[in-house]
Amino acid sequence: MVTTNAEKVKLRLNGKPVGEKAVDKYEMATFEVPYEAGKLEAVASTGGKQVARYSVDTTGKPARLEFVPDRTRLAGDGLDAEPVTVQVVDAQGRVVPAANPLVKFSISGPGAIIGLNNGDPTNHEPEKGDQHTLFHGLAQVILQSKQSGHGKLTLSAASEGLTSGEVVIDVTAAAPLPAVPVI
Asked: pLDDT at position 26, please?
């Protein structure tokens, strides 16, 4: 199924046409595509003019773990937190959606892991801890700075059969929170 708000969509597999269909605003456009490794591309058009293009490529075998942090810096106030996406990629750096390995995390520096999840609504693994299974090649780790923290916060991940990953987040000193002194 191709979802678009354009009038028509063409589908190509490895450069060869699969078909072209008008897009129904409720049912979209559905194609029967025999499996073939390579590149599947959708080209959407309205009024005969191309308005969008999207493609997906067949991935290779899972090779390594990578991190995509939301930011590269946290305030060392003990309150600042950020999500860090964990992904399994192939040798070309493409996310492997069929990879669902158990990943063990470790952290060093002025911060802590305060949450883990993978987006799978049927997964009942704890959302606290130091390990989690990925879902469709992805998961998320929530990091939080320590109060009065500063320096390098390093998150590492390891999984059997994959090259380990590591990301370094700078934790900067933060001014103390304003407070009324207790007498």
From this structure: 93
Kindly write down the DSSP assignment for every residue of 3-60, as one continuous string.
Answer: --SSSEEEEEETTEEEEEEEPBTTTBB-------SSEEEEEEEETTEEEEEEEEE---
Question: Model-level pTM?
Answer: 0.84
The pLDDT of residue 95 is 96
Report how far residue 168's alpha carbon sits from residue 147's, in angstroms, rounded to the nearest whole number. 18
CA distance 166 to 164: 7
pLDDT at residue 36 in the model: 94
CA distances from 32 to 22, 58, 132 (A): 15, 17, 35
Query: pLDDT tens-digit profile of 36-48?
Result: 999 999 999 999 9
Q: Residue for token digits 């080209």?
A: 43
Structural domains of the chain, with CATH? 8-57 (no CATH), 64-173 (2.60.40.10)
Pairing of strands 73-76, 165-173: parallel
CB 165 within 8 A of CB 86: yes
The pLDDT of 90-96, averaged and rounded, is 96
